[in-house]
Each structure stands twice: as C-alpha cells, then as structure tokens.
Write a structure and sequence with these properties.
The complex is a heterodimer of chains A (286) and B (180). Chain A has 286 residues and is an alpha+beta fold. Chain A folds into two domains: 109 residues, no CATH class; 123 residues. Helices cover 39% and strands 21% of the residues of chain A. In chain A, the strands form two sheets. In chain A, strands 2-1-3-8-9 form a five-stranded mixed sheet, covered by helices on one side. In chain A, strand 1, helix 4 and strand 2 form a beta-alpha-beta unit. In chain A, helix 1 packs across helix 4, helix 2 runs antiparallel to helix 3 and helix 6 packs parallel to helix 8. The radius of gyration of chain A is 19 Å and the shape is globular. The model of chain A has no long low-confidence stretch (mean pLDDT 97). Chain B has 180 residues and is α/β, with parallel strands linked by helices. Chain B has one domain: fumarase (Alpha-Beta Barrel). Helix content of chain B is 28%, strand content 34%. Chain B contains seven helices and nine strands, in the order βαβαβββαβαβαβαβα. Chain B has a five-stranded mixed β-barrel with strand order 2-3-6-7-9. In chain B, strands 4-5 form a two-stranded antiparallel ribbon. In chain B, helix 2 links the parallel strand 2 and strand 3. In chain B, helix 2 packs across helix 3. The longest helix of chain B has 11 residues. Chain B is globular and about 50 Å long. The chains are: A alpha+beta (286), B alpha/beta (180). Chains A and B meet through helix 3 of A and helix 5, strand 9 and helix 7 of B.
C-alpha cells in the first residue's frame, strides 16, 4: 500500500479547503452582494474578488489558515485504520510547506511552535465509525478570530427555547464585527457543556442554506437568521443587512437540570472540503 | 468619498477623512500584532521609521523564494487585541493610519483625535486580495524571536484597499453609531 500517496491526498484535501469555498457559501455571498449597498457592498465585493483570486492562484484565501480540524468517518472494514492518524498528521506537515499554511500551533506554556501545524492533540480529529470499507474525511480549517467568539451558556431550563434564542442573538450582537461577518453560526443545544459545543461545531458541517430535518428546529433557524440580520451589524461589522449567512442547530437530550447551549462561529470563509479513501488506497477530493 | 493617498499621509489629508470614506494607500506599511506592539513599546530604538508608514494589524502567511520574501496571504487580524497598546503606540511612533478589522475602543478613539489619525477597516479574510497589492517586502524585524505571524513585516504596497474609514480624527466611529 502506498501510504505516501494517501498523505498527498490529505495535502490536496487541505489545499482544496484553503483555496476554494464550497458553492453553497459562494451562492450565499452572491445573494448578499445583490442586497447590500454602500460600505457593506464594498466588503462583499472584496470578499468575492478575494475568493476568485485565491482559487485562480491556488493560494489560501485567508492568511489565518486555521487549526487543522478533521471529521473522519471510518468504515469498519477499511484495512488500514491503524495508519490513518499518522497519514493525516504527515499530510498536515507536508501541506504546511507545500500549500503553504501559516505555522499556527503554539504550546500554551512554552510558546514553542513546531512550524508544521502539529502539536499536542493537533491536528484535531473527531473519529466516527460506520459500515463499509471507505473512509470519509471532512476538513474544516478553523480560524482564530471566529473561534474566539465561541460561547457556552449553561442556561436555566426554565428560560425555555425562547431563552436559548435570546442567548444566541445577544451573543452574536456582542461579537459584532470580530468573527468576520457574514458568519455561519452553529448552535448545539442539550447534552452537557462539552457536547453542546461539539454539536455547535458539527452543525457547521451542514451546507449553507440547508435547513434542519425537523420543521420546528428549521423554523427556529430561520427566526435566528432574521433576528441577527436585523441587528444591522453587517459585513465586517461596518453596518448592513447581512450579518449571518446561516444558522444551523443540532440537538442532544439534556439533563433535567441543565440547558447547555454551545455556539460555534465560522467566518465568511466557511472552508470545507471532503475526501474519500477506498480500501485499495485510491482516493478522491471534492 | 474615495481617496487615493500616498504614504506618509499629511495631517491635512487625515483631517479630511470622515467615517465611511474609502481609501487606497500607496507606499510602505508595517505589520504588528500583540507581540510586536509590546516589543516596540519596550525598545528605546527600533530599526525602521513607523511615522512614515501605515500600521497594519496582520499576521501574514509568507514564503521565501530565491532568498526573497513573498506574501502568500495577508488579511487583517482582530484589532481589539491591540487596544491595550494603541494609544501609547500612536503617541510614541506618530503613525497616523491604522489598518485592521473589527474596530477598536475608546482609548484608541481618543488617541486618534489627539494625534490626528484614522482607523480603517480592511475586509477580514481577504488575504489573497491583500497579497496581490504588495509589490515588495523590503524588510522584516524580529522574525526569529516572534515567528512569522507576530514579526514586523514591511510591505511596499500599491493602491492597497479598499480601506473603510471606520474611526476618524474627529471622534466619529461607525462601530459606536451601530451600537446605538
């Protein structure tokens, strides 16, 4: 088995995520461009120009190439499960030089940066198992500016879903221009503190414009989009109609005494790319 | 209004600028994030003249090719982190244009009035577009100590923008208007 070839696949996966935005995001930004005017329009125009330029010149659209974050679905019959972690790590190291990526991993105590985007627990990989023999990897490079606007609310269950909505709207108004709006907001409701934040981040994997499969939740998503956009914060916090491109909610059952709400924020550079690896080692990035 | 300014910008040119104006700058700019601010404020002497340049809140992605530094991607970083340094920084170095994103607080607003400067917002994340406007990288300082994102990079830029005047020298701030 040629593991080096699969590592190169990881490089291509990261390159795709860093240099090209998914169509659903571009579509939403183009819609924003149609409805904005004045300063807000200058921002969306610059974003769209930047996206074209990055794709054309194959270079990262944003200098903050993020913490390399992967969601991996492993088919239980894939024969090289024990190699996957190394393959991803090596792919990140190679990609840092080849693409290139900004050296973004710093030891919190010593300040040491290995300059290859790896370190303790990083790249950050979430493992999941599924039937079959294919491996599906989603890359979600996560920038620091938007990550800094993450929030956890351990609300009192008595405030109900209305309280959850108010919490999300208030926090996004407080975040203002800092997370590089128009953003995509992932909201995890229920579970415990950690699970709600994890669900918030997983919610970011859903394409922009796609509503939750449950009608009640879908309509809450729509309400939140409307309320946050009514704030007038606008692109880059300079005023305008588009503060969020989308809001995605995921839920888990909660403890009777807790109502955790985890908010994960993604900047307009809602970078996502996918890779499939077959059991014979062949791979494809899309 | 739209203005095309050569750096350094004069006091008169800065005074003319009002919030929501859009400017494009040509000349030299330098990058400084938290650590470069801290370092520059501590040092008695620094190896370049910030009063002739615009200050860019940016941790760029750079690569070295044929012994020459090139900008790969260089959008702005969140300016509010520099709020704790900026009034002292403007006073010490006489820089009169700040380029960043997300806005700054009261201390910087007051310093911009006192020393006649503007804070301009460049589109966050537009790193490839910014890199395209950099003609040359004449220097870098403290690269070894601070690392690539935190070092002070000097960029020679042409028509760098669009930069939206978000805090002007007359006490105007787009961010404060929106908060109301």
């Amino acid at each position: 088995m040629n593991f080096e070839d699969i590592e190169q696949g990881i490089v291509e996966l990261i390159r795709k995520a860093e240099t090209e935005l998914p169509d659903d995001v571009i579509k939403a930004l183009k819609k924003a461009n149609r409805i904005e005017e004045g300063v807000a329009k200058t921002q969306i125009e610059a974003i769209l120009k930047n996206i074209d330029l990055a794709k054309e010149s194959k270079r990262p659209m944003c200098q903050d190439t993020g913490i390399q974050t992967f969601f991996v679905k492993v088919g239980i019959d894939f024969p090289y499960i024990n190699k996957l972690k190394n393959i991803i790590n090596n792919g990140v190291k190679k990609g840092t030089k080849e693409i290139p990526l900004r050296p973004n991993t710093v030891d919190p105590f010593l300040g040491i940066n290995h300059k290859d985007n790896t370190g303790d627990q990083i790249p950050y990989i979430t493992w999941d198992f599924t039937e079959g023999s294919d491996v599906l990897i989603t890359a979600l490079p996560k920038g620091g500016g938007s990550e800094n606007m993450s929030k956890l609310g351990m609300l009192k269950p008595g405030v109900g879903i209305e309280g959850v909505k108010d919490f999300v709207v208030d926090e996004m108004i407080k975040a203002a221009g800092n997370p590089c709006p128009p953003t995509v907001v992932g909201v995890g409701i229920g579970g415990g503190a950690d699970l709600s934040l994890k669900l918030g981040k997983k919610a970011l994997l859903r394409p922009v414009g796609e509503r939750h499969k449950y009608k009640t939740i879908a309509s809450i998503e729509e309400e939140l989009i409307e309320r946050i956009n009514e704030s007038g914060i606008g692109p880059m916090g300079l005023g305008g109609k588009t503060t969020v491109l989308d809001v995605h909610i995921e839920k888990a059952h909660r403890h009777p005494a807790s109502l955790p709400v985890g908010i994960a924020v993604q900047c307009w550079a809602d970078r996502r790319a996918h890779m499939i690896i077959h059991k014979d080692g062949s791979w494809k990035v899309r | 209004m739209e203005y095309h300014l050569n750096l350094p910008a004069s006091k008169e040119e800065i005074k003319k600028l009002k919030i929501r104006d859009v400017i494009y700058v040509t000349g030299e700019i330098f990058t400084a994030r938290d650590e470069a601010h801290h370092m520059m404020l501590e040092k008695d002497k620094i190896p370049f003249d910030p009063s002739k340049m615009a200050l860019f809140h940016c941790g760029p992605l750079m690569k070295k090719e044929k012994n020459k530094w090139q900008v790969v991607s260089a959008g702005p970083t969140t300016s509010s982190r520099m709020e704790i340094f900026e009034d002292k920084f403007l006073e010490k170095f006489g820089t009169n244009i700040i380029i960043g994103k997300g806005g700054m607080g009261e201390r910087t607003e007051k310093a911009l009035q006192k020393f006649t400067g503007v804070y301009t917002a460049y589109t966050g994340g537009a790193g490839a577009l910014a890199a395209d406007k950099v003609e040359e990288v004449p220097g870098v300082y403290w690269l070894e100590e601070l690392g690539m994102p935190e070092a002070a990079w000097i960029f020679k830029v042409k028509e760098f923008g669009p930069l939206v005047v978000a805090i002007d020298s007359h006490g105007g701030s787009i961010y404060n208007e929106l908060k109301k």
